[in-house]
């Protein structure tokens, strides 16, 4: 009997000791002594764009902020936020003197924790007459961060937040390119079941010269008008220059009198020696 009592007492004593050892760590909280957000930004993927195009440009925002020192101690209340988190991040893209139109408003992307990243997307239009070169797009980033957390006693904390606005320059490259306009369309002897010609007056409305330029005509969908001779060599295609390109086409027997679509593009070599195609321009043949 006495032996059982001694065993029970020993177990209770050991349990109390373990409980006393565990209790302080269980009640311990974390207090961050240093740390703040550190945001950087860059265009995701290629930063090269072509005149006359509308694109969705994605911007990667990285938070490299670290919490370099923290204190873990009993009696400290855990904070809801850490100082390295950028909270309620809002980004605004500016054009400055770049030849673009920004179609998107400011983007709210939420919180970015330290060592994490997020993306903002902006729809932009690169102007038709954009000159090749490197431009700077100013990206404004606004965010809130935890500046201080003052603990009162053992049951309450007062948070103080700060606000910051920074501007990050994003290098933006406009590629050497031409821009194609179809000025006029002149059909000749186009009848159902036969063949004829289509003469297009084409204009380079861009700011760069296309070398070894070739006009390429293509069928649009199920149009009954089909190119027979689909390419015309232009050669050097200078800014503002207009050229006539004559193509032979055939018309299916079931073609009815109405306007049918075709499309044309220019394949050329730009000033950087790259071979590019303009976006296809669709037009109607009366």
Mean pLDDT: 87
For the biggest β-sheet, the strand order reads: 3-11-10-6-8
Number of helices: 1
* Helix/strand structural class: mainly beta
Q: Tell me what portion of residues adopts beta-strand conformation.
A: over 45%
- Outline the low-pLDDT stretches: 22-26
Secondary-structure element order, as H and E? HEEEEEEEEEEEEEEEEEEEE
The rounded Rg comes to: 34 Å
Question: CATH homologous superfamily of the largest domain - what is it?
Answer: Immunoglobulins
Q: Please, how many domains?
A: 2
Structure description:
There is one protein chain. The protein is mainly beta. The chain has 2 domains: 28-174, Immunoglobulin-like; 180-285, Immunoglobulin-like, CATH 2.60.40. Helices cover 9% and strands 56% of the residues. It has 1 helix and 20 strands. It has one helix spanning 2-26; strands at residues 28-32, 39-43, 48-49, 54-63, 70-74, 86-93, 100-102, 107-112, 116-126, 133-152, 156-174, 180-188, 195-204, 210-219, 225-227, 231-237, 242-251, 260-269, 275-277, 281-285. The longest helix is centred in the N-terminal third of the chain and has 25 residues, at 2-26. Residues 22-26 have low confidence and may be disordered.
Summary?
The protein has 286 residues and is mainly beta.
What keyword list fits this structure?
286 residues; 1 helix; 20 strands; 2 domains; mainly beta
Question: Which helices and strands occur, and which strands form pairs?
Answer:
Elements: H1 2-26, E1 28-32, E2 39-43, E3 48-49, E4 54-63, E5 70-74, E6 86-93, E7 100-102, E8 107-112, E9 116-126, E10 133-152, E11 156-174, E12 180-188, E13 195-204, E14 210-219, E15 225-227, E16 231-237, E17 242-251, E18 260-269, E19 275-277, E20 281-285
């Amino acid at each position: 009997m006495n032996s059982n009592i001694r065993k029970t007492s020993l177990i209770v004593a050991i349990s109390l000791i373990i409980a006393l050892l565990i209790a302080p760590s269980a009640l311990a909280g974390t207090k961050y002594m240093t740390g703040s957000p550190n945001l950087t930004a860059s265009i995701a993927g290629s930063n090269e764009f072509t005149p006359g195009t509308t694109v969705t440009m994605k911007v990667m925002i990285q938070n490299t902020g670290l919490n370099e020192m923290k204190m873990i101690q009993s009696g400290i209340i855990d904070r809801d936020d850490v100082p390295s988190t950028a909270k309620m991040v809002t980004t605004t893209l500016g054009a400055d003197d770049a030849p673009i139109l920004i179609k998107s408003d400011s983007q709210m992307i939420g919180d970015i924790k330290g060592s994490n990243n997020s993306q903002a997307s902006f729809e932009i239009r690169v102007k038709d007459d954009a000159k090749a070169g490197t431009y700077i797009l100013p990206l404004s980033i606004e965010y809130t961060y935890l500046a201080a957390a003052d603990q009162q006693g053992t049951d309450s904390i007062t948070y103080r937040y700060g606000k910051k606005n920074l501007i990050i320059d994003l290098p933006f490259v406009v590629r050497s390119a031409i821009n194609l306009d179809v000025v006029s369309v002149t059909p000749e002897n186009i009848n159902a079941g036969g063949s004829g010609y289509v003469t297009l007056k084409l204009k380079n409305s861009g700011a760069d010269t296309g070398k070894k330029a070739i006009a390429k005509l293509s069928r649009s969908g199920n149009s009954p008008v089909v190119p027979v001779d689909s390419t015309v060599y232009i050669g050097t295609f200078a800014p503002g220059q207009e050229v006539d390109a004559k193509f032979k086409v055939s018309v299916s027997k079931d073609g009815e009198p109405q306007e049918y679509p075709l499309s044309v593009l220019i394949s050329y070599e730009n000033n950087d020696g790259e071979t590019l195609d303009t976006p296809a321009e669709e037009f109607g043949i009366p």
